[in-house]
Amino acid sequence: MDTYTPATKTISLKQYGIQHNNVRYQLSPSELHNVTLEKEMGKEASSGALAINTGEFTGRSPMDRFIVKDDITQEKIWWGNINIPFEPEKFDKLYDKVIAYLDDKELFVRDCYACAEDDYKLNIRVINEYPWSNMFAYNMFLRPTVEELESFDPEWTVVNAPGFMADAEIDGTRQHNFAILNFSRKIALIGGTGYTGEIKKGIFSALNFILPVFKNTLPMHCSANVGNDGDTAVFFGLSGTGKTTLSTDPNRKLIGDDEHGWTADNAVFNFEGGCYAKVIDLSQEKEPEIYGAIKHGAILENVILDDQDVVDFADTSITQNTRVSYPIYHIENIQQPSIGKNVKNIFFLTADAFGVLPPISKLTPAQAAYHFISGYTAKVAGTEAGVVEPQPSFSACFGAPFMPLHPAVYAEMLSKKMQESGVDVWLINTGWTGGPYGVGKRMELKYTRAMISAALSGELGLYSYDKYHIHSVFGVAQPRECPGVPTSVLSPRATWNNDDAYYKTAFKLTNAFRENFKKFESYASEEIRRGGPQRYAF
Hints:
The chain is α/β, with parallel strands linked by helices. The protein has 15 helices and 30 strands. Helix 1 packs antiparallel against helix 3 (131-140) and helix 9 (365-374) runs antiparallel to helix 10.
């Protein structure tokens, strides 16, 4: 277990424009837990975890994420509705307003770092208005030793002011909340939102620019673990597809659950020091490791507690995006330090709510590049206002909201690494089987785990006609048999018992793939374009 000894060091924030000395520096998780309770900003759940409410925002606000357009970023960022430009002068004025707002408040400050690999370490200072936000930073970033703190020199600063409301007309924001990256000043400025994910995703977005541009290293929105033989597996996927669940495997050591870098010498390192998992419908039976991590030191977000302060994980009355943050040492079986080598398998996770993709299929290099650029999953009814039936959702590189460069840059880096390492790439459907959402049912976790275990052990074998079937619509190779999985489950068409309905829905999804890929066609080779579905409905 990672033990914590508070530092005796005191700091001044005058270099940031904050004149007062009402600073609570480097408090322990227990101290921050208690301060939160004293301020009546949270409750203690029966498990010992701290339960808080993030307020108006229970998730990220992608349309309110900006990057300052300056000499460093102007020619390199893929500008658009994901990476929205912000004027340097507007940033400076808004920063000064936020600092003035914070200047008469008790502040919680933490020095920490990102990137477990020493050659890539990024020192960070986090300045928080709320104690539980600072506790989140303790959980999610890597924790310096007391000796390291004595000479700590922060390179990036996160300024986090949930209570500050911007004036859109004056400040240049879209509305009162904002998350802005400034690469020249090396500041992530966050205001108007208490959602803690903006803190970690701000630094993740910064690294997604810094590592490929300056370090020749691929940043990835993925989880990773390592086997007893030293083989590393990487799991790409959007929120809700199973990154955290499937990488937290009792038989493999967890490297990390969300953000990693892949170096030129084939090492994968965690950016973070903790995990940030969705807890909707969490159960001890299905996900014992995550369930067990929810104890003193963990932060539960936007959950409902009963009269005995027991969490009702099925209650989504606040949001479907209920979450827990905990330091990685709350998981017993972890890789220390959080670095793995010898990457052997990559899994692309998708929650296909149409129920037409195979539960597991093996991809060719061209198909892998196509699906990586596409980044497909699906929204289901009820997750967003106006969603009444499954809708395809594409996020390039399985993390477009955090990728400042053009997706082709990351795809080319991944393709090169796949070729160099000879890695096997698998597409895993953790979504629906037997029909679309509302008709079929969610793929059983025990079957998905069995399929991934078989892929990792080599039991699924090399491609051959006897062992694999080429899907007639998507062109991917689906295994005919898998240990621990009924043969009928492996064929999505067979689970429907209605061929006409299945193919009609499958063709509908292929059209969505093709329509989405149009914006990338000019950047993709003919081989990659052929990696997508080749049959489609007119």
